[in-house]
Amino acid sequence: EDARARLAAAHPQSLARHRAAAAALPGGNTRAVLYYDPFPLTFTGGAGCRVTTLDGVEMVDLVSEYSAGLYGHSDPVIAAALKTAVDGGIALGAPNIVEARYAAALVDRFPGFERVRFCNSGTEANIMALSTARAVTGRGTIIAMAEGYHGGVLTFAHGGSELNLPFPFAFATYNDIAATRALIRERADDLAAVILEPMMGGGGCIPADREFLAMIREETRAAGALMILDEVMTSRLDYRGLHGAHGIAPDLLTMGKYLGGGASFGVFGGRAEIIDRFDPSRPGAFSHGGTFNNNVLSMSAGYAGFMNVLTEPAVAAMNDTGERLREGIAAALDRHGLAACVTGRGSLMNIHFVPGPITTPAPLDAADPRHLSLLHAELLLAGFHIAPRGMIALSLPFGDGDAAEFLAALDTILADHARHL
Ligand code: PLP
């Protein structure tokens, strides 16, 4: 409470903006995930891995737009690509050159993409993948992971949302090989697909065991169902995507986030035999619309970053920085004797106020939400922006020096509050 009050006192202009915005925007913003009590801070700008609040306070950004801000806030290659696109004319309403180049580059880099289709968000990519799976199999049921997140209308945390799409879902326990195998076999007759992330992102940065992924690959094939991997968040964890690192070949694969270079973006794809059914020159082709699917801003920013900035060494360096940061956080939690842990892989991680190791989401419910709330507020006061749920996503400009500053601040906060945590 005290930390929240100090935060409000330090950000009067954010508070005023929040109150004024609420007249037209319920809750003062358009994204549920960005809200926290008593009001979320407003950011007015950013450079590198730093952002500036409306009250002029600079912060190190460890949210990185929930992983979509991989390039940081001022990458010159992205800026130049956007300028070139704007100068060349936008909203062209025809196939363009960049979309074809980008499609070829994605197919070249990610083994799970033999063919791709662009869309506007990760949510849309997953809706398209699920609908495609139902259409090609002629079946209805979808198995998803309890506590998984695949988009605004595909959210399965805490029992799901009333706004979820009415697909007939059944839920499996992440990383539970025996129970999930049994569920797939039980539903085999009507099973269209199993959808999961190779690391649960929103579900708490819980990596899948390779054996769990391999079992799903094998069982879906045996059941005549499709395996859909959602790599909207995780594709950054390896140059070839996390499915590439694990050597798992899904039937359908979705990505998004950073691949738009900071602009809105989604892509779904997979085996040629399936995605070729979207070829509109074929009789009976699946129809796929979307005014902005190939918009030149997303295509240009995404392609430029992907080809010129996100090189193999850059991906490795970003994820290595993340591994070191996660080790540093784990050491700090240990040093202060807290019943807490940090999960994740590479540049994506999550602090949890429950003892580790965590391999499935259910034990996370035991955490006292006041602990994360306190840590989040104290970190904001110290100039570090992490997600209210304890998640951290790094950007390319974030270096070991930034990590050292963060770990020093974390250590001080944990020392000050150890008796409350
Ligand atoms: N899938 C996963 C795994 C995600 O983390 C997200 C976004 O957080 C989505 C899908 C939805 O993507 P978007 O927000 O672009 O609709």
TrEMBL record:
Domain of life of the organism encoding this protein: Bacteria
PANTHER family cross-referenced by the UniProt entry: GLUTAMATE-1-SEMIALDEHYDE 2,1-AMINOMUTASE, GLUTAMATE-1-SEMIALDEHYDE 2,1-AMINOMUTASE 1, CHLOROPLASTIC-RELATED
Family: Belongs to the class-III pyridoxal-phosphate-dependent aminotransferase family.
Molecular function in Gene Ontology: pyridoxal phosphate binding; transaminase activity
InterPro entries: Aminotrans_3, PyrdxlP-dep_Trfase, PyrdxlP-dep_Trfase_major, PyrdxlP-dep_Trfase_small
Gene3D superfamilies linked to this entry: Aspartate Aminotransferase, domain 1 (3.90.1150.10), Type I PLP-dependent aspartate aminotransferase-like (Major domain) (3.40.640.10)
Cofactor: pyridoxal 5'-phosphate
Keywords: Aminotransferase, Pyridoxal phosphate, Transferase
Segments crossing the lipid bilayer: none
Isomerase recorded as keyword: no
UniProt name for this protein: Aminotransferase class III-fold pyridoxal phosphate-dependent enzyme
